[in-house]
Amino acid sequence: MSTLYTRIQRDLALSITNGEYVPGSRIPSETSLAKRFGVTRMTVRHAVDGLISEGLVTRRHGSGTFVSQRRQPQRALNRLTGFTEDMRAQGRLSTTVELDRREVEAPAEIGAQLELSEGAHAVVLERLRQFDGKPVALQRVWLPFARAPELARRSLDGASLYETLEREYGIRPTTARQRITAVVATRREADVLGVEPGEPLIFAERLTRDTNNRPVELAETWSVPELSLWVELHR
Fold first, then answer.
1. Are 23 and 68 in contact (CB under 8 A)?
2. Which domains does the chain carry?
3. Beta strands at 64-67 and 121-131: parallel, antiparallel or unpaired
């Protein structure tokens, strides 16, 4: 369940995405935002702090809070979100090119991670993620066919996979375990991402589970180093 301040944070991030607040402009004061949303100023302060941690705004002492100048896209590791959601939260325009979408018999290693019976089928989606028209990530996603069979027959049309799973299938991604390592680009990845074979890439494998601890998806992503990853740590 989203907390109140995270919902306000998303609402403000969307305002930045839609151009209501442009880079360099000052957003309303915390007092004004508290009145708008009908919450305490402390709740708004938490929401703004979240925008600051994402790099969307900066707080200038005595002057207010301003929308940050555009910078390279990044993905947070401390939230369970998809690429589309991450870019939207940063006020970024991202596009997705579907490369493959089909129903297949799950390979043994994929089926094992998705906890499928032998011979069970999976939906495989392969998509190229772009930022400002430049390829930044190649993603291959495996989903249990029985849980969302229609996804093998229709395109997401750029929509968020997680939002689609929750809205249309009642599947809510809740937890995930992710492994990240450095790899070199194969010919296939190089051709898709517009790099040279052998160039370094960031490889991430993420197994996501729902509220009942059932596997939802296994995602394999090859990203260019410019798509940075960040995590906020507390002690």
1. yes
2. 4-67 (1.10.10.10), 74-230 (3.40.1410.10)
3. unpaired
